[in-house]
Amino acid sequence: MIHASAVRVEPASWQNLLASSITDPRTLLHRLQLDPQLLEGTLAAAQDFALRVPEPYLSRIRPGDINDPLLRQVLPLGIELDEQPGYVADPLGEQHSNARPGIIHKYHGRLLLVVSAGCAVNCRYCFRRHFPYQDNSLSTAEWDAALDYIRQDDSISEVIYSGGDPLAANDRRLAWLTREIAAIPHVRRLRIHTRLPIVIPQRITPELIDALCGTRLPVTMVWHCNHAAELDELTRDAANRLRQAGVTLLNQAVLLRGVNDTLSAQIALSEALGDSGVLPYYLHLLDRVRGASHFLVPDYQAQELVGRLLTRLPGYLVPRLVRETAGEPAKVPVSVTLVHDL
Ligand code: SF4
């Protein structure tokens, strides 16, 4: 007989956590003790854009609270299906910048590689919620062609791993890709846009760090965290390990009604990021994607909010307020309104 204390419970691997994510609206409502009357709308909205929530993220949501800021980001609602003028499938016109399968080339000097079609969480406000990922899942030959595109354009000094979430790809794929890109002399930097360290911090393994940091390329990782309650001991550990490996850590957030549209929420987010060694980089105005209109914060409120933030925090903890507009050669900075109410 084995004594109970002799049984060692292995922590769940990130792959198991990813595979066991909640995708059934009934399970989500049950686990979070939410009103069963939500089910009809939740099922309908999840048909349009699937529900996906991994366990480590779920564990930070307060049961029974329909207004929980983390829940609001992931819970499909019937309201998403209401047509709203000005809200479209591809608000950033990315399908025109989809230079070839797997590549989105919008701005001078850098391009996005769609490394993985999948995400670990499906965010209801995502501007790529209708993106044709099926046309951007690459065969080996297509990967070679995508790399050739980079090889042949010596204006490209930075490659950005994007998705979906690029860290949903396995370490072998990421290590191979990073080596291939590092072998292109004109590429000087690697950037990774990811939400995985927030929703499954266990993804930051030594093997992943080796895969990303094992070449000559300096690595910047841009997290996507929208609320202080998304950060905990595990995310802080993940940030520490990345910083020890020399990775520069930044954060981009989206300004979302009912999630982070108050001064206290933005201060708490910036402070919690600062505690983790992650610098706030961008605060994005909502991209007007079909299904996300209920998250909109009007421009004047956003401008005043960031103006107030400037009076409360050191400048390096205040993100730049930006809007992304189809066809523009860069993200457009949005002016802020300074408020004298200290
Ligand atoms: S993780 Fe990023 S790409 Fe994936 S659904 Fe959320 S916002 Fe969209």
Structural shape? globular
Instruction: Write down the overall mean pLDDT.
Output: 94
In the CATH hierarchy, what is the class of the largest domain? Alpha Beta
Roughly what fraction of the amino acids lie in strands? Answer: 5-15%
Give the proportion of residues in helices.
25-40%
Q: CATH homologous superfamily of the largest domain - what is it?
A: Aldolase class I
Give the assembly state of these chains.
single chain
Mind summarizing the main beta sheet? 9 strands, mixed
Number of domains: 2
Poorly predicted parts: none
The sequence of SSEs as H and E is HHHHHHEEHEHEHHEHEHEHEE
Identify the bound ligands: iron/sulfur cluster
- Per CATH, the architecture of the largest domain is Alpha-Beta Barrel
- Tell how many strands the DSSP assignment holds: 9
Which structural class do the helices and strands define? alpha/beta
Family: Belongs to the radical SAM superfamily. KamA family.
Catalytic activity: L-lysine = D-beta-lysine
Cofactor: pyridoxal 5'-phosphate; [4Fe-4S] cluster
Protein name: L-lysine 2,3-aminomutase
Secondary-structure topology with pairs:
Layout: H1 14-19, H2 25-31, H3 39-48, H4 55-58, H5 69-74, H6 94-97, E1 103-107, E2 110-116, H7 140-151, E3 158-163, H8 171-182, E4 189-194, H9 196-199, H10 206-213, E5 219-224, H11 233-244, E6 248-254, H12 263-275, E7 279-284, H13 299-312, E8 320-323, E9 332-333
Parallel strand pairs: 2-3, 3-4, 4-5, 5-6, 6-7, 7-8
Antiparallel strand pairs: 1-2, 8-9
Residues 119, 121-123, 126, 128, 163-165, 195, 224 line the site of iron/sulfur cluster.
